[in-house]
Input
Amino acid sequence: MPETTFNPHEFKAQFPIFDQAENEKLIYVDNAATTQKPQAVIDRLTHFYLYENANAHRASHRLARAATDAIENSRKIIAGFINANDRDIVFCRGTTEGFNLLANGLASQCHAQEEIIITSAEHHANILPWRRLAEQRNMKIRLVPDIDGIPDLSQLASMLSDNTRIVSFTMASNVLGCKLNLESVAQLLKDHPCFYVIDAAQGLGHCPIDVDKLGCDFLVASAHKAYGPLGAGFVYGKQKVLSTLDPYLLGGEMVKSVTLDAAEFNKAPGRFEAGTMQLASIAGFGAAIEFLSQQDREGMHAHEVRLIQHIHKELSSLPAIQLISKPENNLGICTFNIKSDVIEATSGDLAQWLDEHDIAVRVGYHCAQPLYESRALQQGLRISVAGYNTFEDCDKVVRVIREWIDNIEESKTTTTPCSNSILESLQNAKNWQARYKMLMEFGQEERDESIQADDNIIHGCEAKTWLAGSQVDGKYQFITDSESRIIRGLGVLMKHWFNGKDADFIQNFDWETECQKLGLTRHLSASRNNGFRAMILTAQCSVVPTSSDSE
Ligand code: PLP
Output
């Protein structure tokens, strides 16, 4: 194996966001959502606005020529990077827009009963545009079967027929991290007159892409997941094939001649680039690809693989963690659930704890809900690495996860303080960590499944949360329940404030000041603050003041 020249510390030094004082300790492992941007890309964006800002492909003055050159230069760089011809690259805002462009553009070539084949591991961007196309053209969507969530492409051959019209696969899943072996797919499709599309959103920044070897008709990717700017992406397709597609966006600069009755559209790629494009981002996209090309990409890939294997190994030893992803053939993603039979807390609670320790992860369905539903999984927590992450980062992430688990385990044996001392205990906590731990303790036993009716659901809370209230002699009693333990803990606090009080007190209670005093506003994540706010407002709106009673 050749000696690697890739050094994550030197690589990281090229990303100025990590030099900002507030980010000194930041561990950014949300790279599958978007990567950070190197100085070279930031400089390229600035350069465009300082020296080249004009509209491209229109006027012939000096600045307009510079802007046009910038765009066409990016097109060449990106084409070279994926072994394509530069006229085969259509710029768009990103992968999502690329798929919409394709689904709309292909519609007139699709017919009733024809089939679109995707996998269950697709991002919504590679599902929803096809779903709408299928509805419009009365087509069917079929899913390649999976083994433990990982698409089993060996089943593809038996799914193909004369009805197969579109086959659209992700290069790598944004939940499982697994890289699909797409090289054999083109061979299987060669006797079927279908369009073969690849979603390279998760591939571009991590592995080499050769469209010639892949043999695909189209490939779509975003700049921002590969160290490039937000708002730029591309659709690759051979001119010959692209020219058979109807343009998705209609408007300026994509047309040769227009009358009120007819229009003659340009050839690709201009045919699909209507209106003023995000020119600076496209210039920056070229710079990002140049930057990537200058790295030891094999070394960087090997580094990312080692990191993700290490994280999987460490987390697999924790009984509270249920891994969703697998370390094998993984481009850099580890996703897991919290085992609810081992500890009573959600991945959202853990994400918040990590955020408090300056570790950025993502929690949710990651725009891949069918994957979660097919395996009946709760929202997952995703750690996704990039070249600037280190083994120290990964060890810290694992250590902080362990601490969180230990805290919860410990709190099982601690008893919740009686109602009078709730506020006192919170106020006397020595720091936010201790206060957070206390709220988690409050949430430990605080369950009441009897109120889990649709009518009691609190809207505006990310985790499912219920509230029911009753009134005797003008005094109110609330019951709360939530899937999130921290929200249950916050429910205890709210009940401490409101239970046994009358409507006037409840409605006039200055909870915002109280939350500030306890540091909740500052320390809780935005989603938990919103959830707590929704709970309080729902309770306040549900009570009827005595004055209006007597009217
Ligand atoms: N496809 C995959 C596999 C993704 O991971 C994403 C984004 O997370 C997308 C498509 C959509 O990309 P964008 O949001 O840049 O349009």
Notes: The chain is about 40% helix and 15% strand.
